[in-house]
Amino acid sequence: MNQYPIYLKSSAVISITLFFVLLLKFDFSSAQSVLLKNIENLSAVADTINPGDTAATQQVFKELEEIIKTSPDSELVSDAMRVCGTIYAKTGDFGRAFGMFEKAVEQATKLSAEKGNTLKAKALVSFAIVCQQNGDFGMALSKYLEAEKLYFIDNNIPALIGIYSSLGDLYDKILQPEKRKEMNEKAFELSQQTNDTVAIVKAITGLATNLCNNDNYTEAIKLYNQTVELSQKIGNKQLEHVSLYDLGFAYSRMEDYAKAEEMYAKSYEVALQTGNRMDIGDALYKMGLMNLYSGNLEKSEVQLFKALEIARDIQSKILERNIFDVLYSLEETRGNYKKAYEYLNNYIDIVYVIFSEDDQQQSNFLKARFDAEKREFMISKLESEKEIQQLKLNQQRWLIFGLFLILLFAGMVVLFIVKRYRYRQNLAEKHKQLQEQKIIQLEKEKQLVATQSLLAGEEIERTRLAGDLHDGLGGMLTGVKLKLSSMKENSIITSENLAHFNHALDLLDTSIAEMRRVAHNLMPETLMHYGLQTAVNDFIKQVEPDGFPVIRFSLFGDDLRYEKELEISVYRITQELVNNALKHAAARQIDVQLFTEKNRISVQVIDDGKGFNPEIAKNGKTSKGLKNINDRITAFNGHLEILSEQGKGTECTLEFLIS
After folding, report:
1. Which of 257, 284, 312 is the last residue before a domain boundary?
2. Peptide bond before 524: cis, by omega within 30 degrees of 0?
């Protein structure tokens, strides 16, 4: 006789719940929560029901149909329909199964995205599992991927782990080991982001499966032991049974049959606690197989007969076939060929039955798929006819609309003529304004070219003068000094005349130094050879007095080179700003900061002197220096900002943007 302790408990709870829901309709949210929980219980019970147990199946259907008929809540109805679809598929009624899955998705679509996405995804996963079990791997993959998108939107990590674990199994069946490995690794990566122990166990199991498929059983066993510990920690006996069963499989592949039998025995003990007779029978079958491999024939036979009794009781032809296969090998090992032959015949008979049932199930599955596609075609056809009617209606509307447009167009033509006249007037006015703007722009460009030419001519003349002073006058003065020095060495001079002679040489040295300073100021060689940073630094050292003001020079950026004309302008402006501060500010400290970047040059000269009014300076007699600075800035599209107040010092900021 079948025993379903989990189901009986769930059924009783659901019956009581429904009774109280009918009495307490006003407390809808509480009833909804209870019903959702009990639908989950029914789903778990449905997984343990044997397809041949009609009475148990009908009882579950009765409970679910009651919810579908009486509940106004789409969330409850969708979930109940999904579980109904799973049971229909289990009993081979694929037509109703597909119909229920489609209705479950339809009900979920009525809900908000927050609730609907999860329910829709659960229905799609159930649909995919049925397709996968019946060999329609393409449809299964499509449904899994559709569900994955919905779970991804909701960031449902545990559900995504389940999807990737299922995809790993699917790719394993279609012989794509790399894809299987990728999916299992994805699941494991996601398991690091959740505290859901069930999901974590699934992910670790997938990773262990990858290791087993690569014959790395030692590492796989470590992972399976982790899943056992986690399952025990949360008290999930079903997970614990599966983990122990997987451990037994790994040890059997290592041919450690004693350890494998020990693991299968533990999984058997856990299965006894869950009451799942399929798991109990399967564990006994595996224990018998391991004892056969270990040579414990008597113990093996006892375990196999127990398993056979359960297999027949729950009408599991697959389990019965496997047991007869092992019994055949056991009797053959004993040398009892007559008994072995008998078991072999039993094995063959059951195989024929299984093939016949599989063929019938596959036929039902394909017919259901055909009917589903036919329904989709009919729906598409009806939608097409509706579209045709809508098109005719739209044509009539367009005709009326066209007449309206003709009248509207006539009015618009008149309006266009009036507007065209006004537009031409406005255009003429704008053209006149544009011409005036062009003239102003040309004047500015002309002034800019004149300024650039003037500055270029000035620098050329400075360069020529610096060369003439250095090469011409400098050479002559140096020659005079050499002659006088020679005369001093070769002539007899009185001590009184010697003092005058030495004084003359000192004056000559001072003249040469002053000539070189003037030549350097006209065109510093360091600027030409070493760039802006070095030139400004040398200039600061030359002009800094022994006392106050103290001049501090700071560099920011790399030592970059720019166009020769731009470097000269920046250097001249810096000279002018520093000299103005030295002459007029009466400051104790002057800060000079140079910023050199790839696309920008900037100079700041800040003093703590007496300050001035920039507006007055621009319009007064002392504005020639500022005018020279502004001319150089205009030539290179630069910008100068002067911030100053009486008694509060001055801050000048110069900036050139380089395109």
Report:
1. 312
2. no
What is d(CA 288, CA 293) in angstroms, rounded to the nearest whole number?
9
pLDDT at 513: 63
DSSP character string of 248-275: HHHHHHTT-HHHHHHHHHHHHHHHHHHT
Q: Which two tokens stand for residue 325?
A: 């296969």
Asked, for residue 404, whether it belongs to a domain, the answer is: no
Do the Cβ atoms of 593 and 556 come closer than 8 Å?
A: yes
C-alpha 3: how far from chain center: 51
Distance CA 471, CA 466 (A): 8
**Which of 100, 154, 157 shows the shortest CA–CA distance to 127?**
100
The string of DSSP codes covering 104-163 is HHHHHHTS-HHHHHHHHHHHHHHHHHHHHHTT-HHHHHHHHHHHHHHHHHHT-HHHHHHH
Question: Are 149 and 273 members of one domain?
Answer: no
Whether 35 and 17 have beta carbons less than 8 Å apart is answered as yes
Q: Report yes or no: 215 and 230 within 8 Å, Cβ to Cβ.
A: no
- Give the residue, 327 or 391, on which the prediction is more confident: 327
Is residue 474 situated within a structural domain?
no
Rounded to an integer, the average pLDDT of 375-398 is 69
CATH number of the domain enclosing 571: 3.30.565.10
The whole-number pLDDT of residue 512 equals: 66
- Where does a domain end: 286, 312, 338? 312
* Higher per-residue confidence, 103 vs 440: 103
Q: For residue 250, what are the contacts with CB-CB under 8 A and spacing of at least 6?
A: 208, 212, 217, 220, 221, 224
Q: State how far the Cα of 289 lies from the Cα of 322, in Å rounded to an integer.
A: 10
**What rounded mean pLDDT belongs to the chain?**
77
For 283, which DSSP code?
Answer: H
How many domains does the structure of the chain reveal? Answer: 3
Residue 129 and residue 259 share a domain: no
Query: For residue range 570-604, what is the model confidence (pLDDT) as tens digits?
Result: 888 898 889 888 888 888 999 999 999 989 999 99
Within 8 A by CB and 6+ apart from 523, the residues are 459, 462, 463, 466, 467
> Residue 175 and residue 170: Cα distance in Å, rounded?
9
Cross-strand pairs, 557: 596
Overall pTM > 0.85: no
Burial of 593 (0-12, 13-18, 19+ CB in 10 A): middle
Task: Write down the pLDDT at residue 14.
Answer: 39
Residue 93: pLDDT band (50, 70, 90) is confident
Q: Is 250 left (phi over 0), alpha (psi -120 to 50) or beta?
A: alpha
> Does residue 444 belong to any structural domain of this protein?
no
* Helices and strands per DSSP (H, E), number in the chain: 24, 5
Of 278, 239, 275, nearest in space to 50 by CA:
278
Which structural domain, as residue segments, surrounds residue 251?
215-312
Q: How many CB atoms lie within 10 A of CB 170?
A: 21
Residues 147 and 242 occupy one common structural domain: no
Domain identity same for 127 and 220: no
